[in-house]
Amino acid sequence: MKKVLFISLLSVVLLSASLSLAQEKAKVAYPVGYRDWPHVKSMLIHDPKHPLYNPFSGLHHIYVNKKGLEAYKKGGPSPDGTIIVFDLLEATVDQGAYVEGARKFIGVMQKDSKKFKETGGWGFDAFEKDTKNSFVKDGGKGCYNCHLGQKDKDYVFSKYRP
Ligand code: HEC
Fold first, then answer.
1. Number of Cβ atoms within 10 Å of the Cβ of 153
2. Predicted local distance difference test score (pLDDT) of residue 27
3. 25-153 in CATH: which number?
């Protein structure tokens, strides 16, 4: 009897350990040097009525590393090793011009079809302001759930602007 109890307790412990592993954040490294990467496109979101206003309001620029550039130009799919950065800045109005302000965060997608199998082959992560501190707590599931709408485009929304 005791043995049965022990085994069932052990399986509860193992189960919760594997659950917390599943919730661990995606291990996407901070994309050092991305400001020198090819620029894909930019967008200004300034109207609170826009569906992405919260939390993406502001001016964002998208960059891709050299590895992913050709596929982006063709419209995907991206090879393993591709890293895409969504660089979001505050937008302030100055004498009729929209001017870049402080950085809000950077969003990162990194392609590794084995490591990130559960989220379409992409690791999702985000780093606040000018720091290397990730604030994504759900392993990128929230990001993935929205990017899932682009499944037939390899989960990428934006198009390379020639
Ligand atoms: C509610 C939907 C939504 C959520 C949630 C979301 N994104 Fe996106 N994401 C978009 C859209 C739409 C674009 C395209 C923006 C453009 O065209 O400039 C985009 C673009 C991107 C890009 C550039 C590549 C691409 O797909 O165009 C990256 C990188 C990115 N997001 C990362 C993230 C990360 C990391 C998270 C989670 C922290 C996240 N996103 C959450 C909708 C979303």
1. 14
2. 81
3. 3.50.70.20
| 8-state DSSP, 30 | P
Q: Where do the structural domains in the chain lie, given as residue ranges? A: 25-153
> Could you say which residues of the chain have pLDDT below 70?
1-26
Q: What is the pTM of this model?
A: 0.88
- C-alpha span between 57 and 55 (Å, rounded): 6
Q: Residue 61: which region, alpha, beta or left (left: phi > 0; alpha: psi -120 to 50)?
A: beta
pLDDT at residue 162, rounded to an integer: 96
Are the C-beta atoms of residues 126 and 133 closer than 8 Å to each other? no
Q: Is the CB of 59 under 6 A from ligand 1?
A: no
**Ligand 1 near 126 CB (within 6 A):** yes
